[in-house]
Amino acid sequence: MPRPALLDRLDGSPFALPRSLDRCSELWWSRSPRQRFAIVVALVILTVAGGISHVAATPYGPPATVLVAAQDLGVGHELGPTDVRPTSWPEGLIPDGAVTDAAGRLGAPLPAGSVLTDRHLAHDGIAALLPAGTVAVPLPVEAIPAIEPGQWVDLIGRDVQGAGGVLARDAQVLSTDTVDVWVAVQRDQAPDVAAAATTGTITVVVVGP
In angstroms, rounded to a whole number, what is the distance separating the alpha carbons of residues 130 and 190? Predict the structure, then answer.
């Protein structure tokens, strides 16, 4: 039976290594086991340190944990544990004022995937929820339909003859409780809206998206 060609290639003297590799091999095996172990540990430490340095040197910096919205959250929403989730973001991309405690009420909308920051939280009651240039007016909760914070409404008033007129357009609902619904209107609209709310001659029309 003929001899396999592969075995012919495996016979003979060992392969000759390049002089530099041969020298490194001699130096390695000339060391004691303890020295070889120390060299391996040092190489591992240098490799890990180099990886950390590379991450720190990237344009956006090392990762850090932030809280991002798990879903779209509107103005006045009371934050709960399922509303946000911890996510790793590059440090250089994290907005200023990012918070790590999901507690409080939102004073600004927080779209899904956005980082929760101090600017999203309402710290000064109703005033913190007001859009620029508006004031808050309370409406009796029993006189209006069930609406949620963040919705937009038109406020309609009735005169003594029963004719209706628009008191405010695109008024934002800020918050609701068992007594009042607070809405944001322009300052010059506030007297007519408050008067209509007091006399029970106001109607709320919910505006669609």
Answer: 13
Q: From residue 155, how far is each of 152, 165, 168 by CA, in Å?
A: 10, 9, 5
Work out the percent of the chain whose per-residue pLDDT is above 90: 3
Task: Report the b/e string of 110-130 with b at 16+ CB within 10 A.
Answer: beeebbbbeebbbeeebeebb
Q: How far is CA 190 from CA 139, 142, 146, 176, in A?
A: 11, 20, 22, 18
Q: Is 20 helix (H, G, I), strand (E, B) or coil?
A: helix
Is the entire prediction scored with pTM above 0.85? no
Q: Which tens digits make up the pLDDT trace of 139-198?
A: 888 877 778 888 888 999 887 676 778 899 888 888 887 788 888 899 889 898 888 888
* Residue 114: partners with Cβ closer than 8 Å, 6 or more residues away: 68, 69
Rounded to the nearest 5 percent, the helix, strand and coil shares of the chain are 35, 30, 35
Which pair of tokens denotes residue 93? 């991309």
Q: Which residues in 168-207 are b (16+ Cβ under 10 Å) and which e? A: beebbbbbbeeebbbbbbeeebbebbbebbeeebbbbeee
Backbone angles phi, psi at 115, to 5 degrees: -75, 130
